[in-house]
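Person: I have long wanted to understand how a fold can be written as tokens. Underneath my words sits a plain record pairing an amino acid chain with its backbone structure tokens. Those tokens are not coordinates but codes from a learned vocabulary of shapes. I should like you to check that the lines agree and flag anything odd. The protein I mean follows directly.
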Amino acid sequence: MNYHIKASSISNKDAIVHIKESNIDFGTTSKTTEVLPNPAELFLGSFSACMLKNVERFSTMMAFTYTKAIVEVNATRLESPPRMDNINYNLTIYSNDKKLNPVLLKKNIEKFGTIYNTVKLACTITGTINIIENV
């Protein structure tokens, strides 16, 4: 598989990533530090998107149902050289399905996630999967 994206910016303004029919604004100036994601947050967003895509993918392969999944990600940025380190995630899946095996799901996400496997080559990743029963 090959991927193609495009990003653009204008001097003294923020930037946009153009992906298929989507545009994602991100901050490159100090004026929008509090309102737009920065490149590091987009990176963690891609990591999160990979995990959520794999929850959906494995729900079919492992034959379980869920109503929603939420992932929270924290990371440490090191200064010299600037890079991400110690990524920690907490994936919460809302489901009443007894076929949902969180240990196997975690193993599959960590083994088959494209972004996950790319990132783990550069830094430490730890995480948990929690199942919450729907009421």
